[in-house]
Structure prediction request, 199 residues.
Amino acid sequence: MLLPYFDKKLLEAGCDEAGRGCLAGSVFAAAVILPKGFKCEALNDSKQLSERQRYALRPLIEKEALSWAVGVVAPQEIDKINILNASFLAMHRAIQQLQIQPEHLLIDGNRFKPYGEIPHTCIVKGDGKYLSIAAASILAKTYRDDYMLKLHEEYPFYSWDRNKGYPTVAHRLAIRRHGPTPYHRLSFQLLEPQLDFKP
Prediction:
């Protein structure tokens, strides 16, 4: 059972990102402020849910949330500032778009760059502990998946409809055969030495 809040006296926004470990595509982050009485037994860490469950929960989260937003950082920006800073920036962009300013931020993970004067608490595996972070994880994941499906139509060789840009063997073999696209993160190790063979 996920917890409804970290501090019941404060208006909290849960924040999470998706796509940090990918070789291609933008990193997405979401920020979600849920009402105090919000309950949803189906809500959980997006990684624990099926694709169908995530997409079923998204409209519920968007309807019930007091405010929600999604922030995006492009591959070129990731290459310039590194993926850790890009993850923070994506969260900052999501928080900036909220229609209500939260009094406290709940951040999934163990590190964060402060956003303005708003206090924050980092929670390792927070998407499996707090409702607002779980909600943010679902929005970040589904909006990023939608984006990768659109990119797949442009570059079908890389199977982004299935791997969503993550470093699968098929994805890396496609990079070897076809080279990187404008959506690949060139600062990442796109090819593994183990794949350096001639079939």
Observations:
- The beta strands are 12-18, 27-33, 67-73, 104-108, 120-123.
- The longest strand covers residues 12-18.
